[in-house]
């Protein structure tokens, strides 16, 4: 029964999106005589590279579950956004495609949030490659400035195996962070298995850190998104924060917010 509901929703979504498509212009600029809006089934099928008979069965919920290649072609023919394409995949019972790389741009609204809380709430943003993209002044004041040089100076995993991290986190905290960071790297490499930046980071840490090698052998995958952290401020001493990691899945950006605990 659940399979029929999914397939019916899938067909209804195709029909609805097809109806929203602008029909091709008449070669002589004449007005269209169409009685219904959008593209005809044959036009959409041709754009997607499938037969009109197969496409008709998809809309009617009578075809076997389409392959990922067909779903990708349908999404392209319908002009779907990434979020709409992902919805189409889910309706077909498939996991959405993984992005090839995180987005290189931060949402303007998020940047305004960082600026609005510039001096009050520490906030950082890093991407799926685990590189810091932005910090507000409060975060820099709490966590210290990023290193001035080095290929991995913005990488939150690499930062966990530096002397600066021990100064902020203390002996116990830096060990917990190293374990978490190693699991984060494994998660990121599962998402982007062919990414050269992540592979080179793995090679660097494997060659230089016995602590990293020990935790990497555990084969843990990061899952913790909420934690209580004890951080050493350069002038205020030890402070306790509740950190929350929020995910912008469309861009694969992570927003980390630190609020005073207790």
From TrEMBL:
Domain HTH cro/C1-type stretches: 34-85
PROSITE patterns: HTH_CROC1
UniProt xrefs under Pfam families: HTH_31 (PF13560), MLTR_LBD (PF17765)
Source superkingdom: Bacteria
Full protein name: Helix-turn-helix transcriptional regulator
Source organism (scientific name): Streptomonospora algeriensis
């Amino acid at each position: 029964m659940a399979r029929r509901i999914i397939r019916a929703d899938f067909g209804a979504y195709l029909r609805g999106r097809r109806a929203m498509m602008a029909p091709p212009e008449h070669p002589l600029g004449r007005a269209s005589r169409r009685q219904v809006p959008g593209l005809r089934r044959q036009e959409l099928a041709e754009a997607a590279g499938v037969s009109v008979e197969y496409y008709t069965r998809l809309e009617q919920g009578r075809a076997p579950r389409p392959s990922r290649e067909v779903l990708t072609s349908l999404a392209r023919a319908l002009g779907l956004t990434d979020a709409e394409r992902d919805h189409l995949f889910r309706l077909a019972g498939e996991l959405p495609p993984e992005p090839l790389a995180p987005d290189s741009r931060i949402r303007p609204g998020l940047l305004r949030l960082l600026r609005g809380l510039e001096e009050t709430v520490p906030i950082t943003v890093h991407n799926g490659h685990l590189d810091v993209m932005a910090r507000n002044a409060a975060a820099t004041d709490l966590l210290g400035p990023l290193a001035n040089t080095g290929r991995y100076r913005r990488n939150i995993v690499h930062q966990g195996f530096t002397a600066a991290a021990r100064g902020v986190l203390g002996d116990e905290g830096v060990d917990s962070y190293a374990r978490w960071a190693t699991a984060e790297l494994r998660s990121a490499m599962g998402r982007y298995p062919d990414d050269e930046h992540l592979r080179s980071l793995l090679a660097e840490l494997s060659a230089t850190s016995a602590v990293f090698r020990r935790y990497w052998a555990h084969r843990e995958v990061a899952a913790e998104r909420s934690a209580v952290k004890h951080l050493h401020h350069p002038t205020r001493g030890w402070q306790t924060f509740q950190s929350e990691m929020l995910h912008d899945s469309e861009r694969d950006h992570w927003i980390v917010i630190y609020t005073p605990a207790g």
